[in-house]
Amino acid sequence: MSQMFHLVRHAQASFGAADYDNLSELGHRQSAALGVALKQQGVTPDAVFIGAQKRHRQTWEGIESALQTGITPVVLPGWNEFDFGGLLKARYAERDDAPADLNSDRKTHFRILRDTVLEWQSDEISNPPETFAAFTQRVREARAIIAASGAKAPIAVSSGGAIGRTVADVMEAPAEQMILLQLQVKNCAVARFVLAKGQTWLNGFNETPHIDADNEGEMLTYS
Predict the structure, then answer these.
(1) Is position 203 within any domain?
(2) Residue 212's CATH number
(3) Most exposed of 59, 69, 157, 217 (fewest Cβ within 10 Å)?
């Protein structure tokens, strides 16, 4: 039996706020709009999986407001994002060049994110909150649970890092491709995979069926 697996990045969270792990007002609208678009595409999930972070559940609730599946999502912490804040603390613990304000502008934020992840992948950061190998393993295990679920059309809500790791893994790409993929993933973007006979094939990446020429200026976000 083959499975068409939809893996969705969460909607816009609260960038720069004390608690990033909450959808913004726009994020709630994005997730609802994605639900409408998926319904129009004929997507009818028979199993739902989400990470354990608030933005994952909130995004699913927005999607579900249109799909009306009635399915209770299974929480898989393997789909959680890596702890970027913890990685930063570990990276700069014995250095004097830590950024004064990571959220001063998005370009600075994403440059430091990229450089931090590349050092993490190369085991250049001492005492990280989670090793890159452990992160990779839990993301793989989350995908394996879905593959073993027996669902024909599972859907999951996760974060950019876990999605980038999954796509790079499926494509057998070098580890450093993960962060390059992650930085491309739009809020509420959909990656599609075919799961069959113990294998996984990428069927679509970074799709945004809820965005068109009329709403792109508002709906297209990356954080």
Answers:
(1) yes
(2) 3.40.50.1240
(3) 217
